[in-house]
């Protein structure tokens, strides 16, 4: 990990939520968004992408997945949780970075110093031709940023909404991820799980991981009674 600039380098599993795969992000309406993120991570297409969506829609999953995908392609990426670590934007060292991902940039709205640091950082990234992915809850104009020049910079690239997957797509994802881990999640069990668990993608995929471990340990199939005993004892 390169500590100059205080950035969290990828791929290193440092407090990142697993799994981090663009394939794990679903929804027919998100196909174009996923394609744009893939191209951005490869250094192709748009140089800047601003994605936004409601809480638990998968913003952080996409942000981290972009970093891991870049790393798999031999490119160096850095991820910053702006809400938790806004100071990391100050005097950032951009050397040897092929992709920068800023999660929850709207946390800087109304902070004069933070907004200026983001403005300056975007200018430097553009000068050095380093792709930038940003996430927020709302589109730039609705985030509450006060610096006009920053709003101009945030509009340099493409802004896209993250669409929440429907129930059928979530069930399909749960069953596919279970199959990838080598066990079967019956349709009825997937429905039961979805009805009684947090519905954001990160939580659902974490549950699949927990069920996998429990199933292996108990040598049991994932029937509704077994799922209930594991998740709701």
UniProtKB/TrEMBL annotation:
Residues 21-159 form the Chromosomal replication initiator protein DnaA ATPAse domain. Coiled coil: none annotated. InterPro entries: DnaA_dom, Hda, Hda_lid, P-loop_NTPase. GO terms for biological process: DNA replication initiation; negative regulation of DNA-templated DNA replication initiation. Residues 167-231 form the Hda lid domain. It holds the Pfam family Bac_DnaA. This is DnaA regulatory inactivator Hda.
């Amino acid at each position: 990990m390169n500590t100059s600039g205080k950035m969290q380098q990828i791929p290193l599993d440092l407090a990142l939520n697993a799994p981090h795969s663009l394939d794990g992000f679903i929804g027919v309406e998100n196909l174009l968004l996923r394609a744009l993120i893939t191209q951005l991570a490869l250094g192709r297409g748009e140089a800047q992408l601003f994605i936004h969506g409601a809480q638990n829609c998968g913003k952080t999953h996409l942000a981290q997945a972009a970093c891991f995908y870049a790393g798999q392609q031999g490119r160096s990426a850095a991820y910053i949780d702006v809400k938790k670590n806004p100071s990391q934007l100050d005097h950032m060292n951009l050397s040897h970075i092929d992709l920068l991902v800023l999660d929850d940039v709207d946390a800087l709205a109304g902070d004069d110093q933070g907004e200026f640091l983001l403005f300056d950082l975007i200018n430097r990234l553009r000068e050095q031709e380093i792709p930038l992915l940003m996430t927020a809850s709302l589109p730039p104009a609705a985030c509450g940023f006060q610096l006009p020049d920053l709003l101009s910079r945030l509009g340099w690239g493409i802004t896209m909404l993250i669409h929440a997957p429907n129930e059928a797509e979530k069930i399909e994802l749960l069953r596919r991820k279970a199959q990838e881990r080598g066990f079967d999640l019956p349709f009825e069990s997937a429905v039961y799980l979805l009805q009684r668990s947090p519905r954001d993608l990160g939580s659902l995929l974490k549950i699949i991981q927990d069920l996998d471990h429990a199933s292996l340990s108990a040598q049991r199939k994932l029937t509704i009674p077994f799922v209930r005993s594991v998740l709701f004892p």
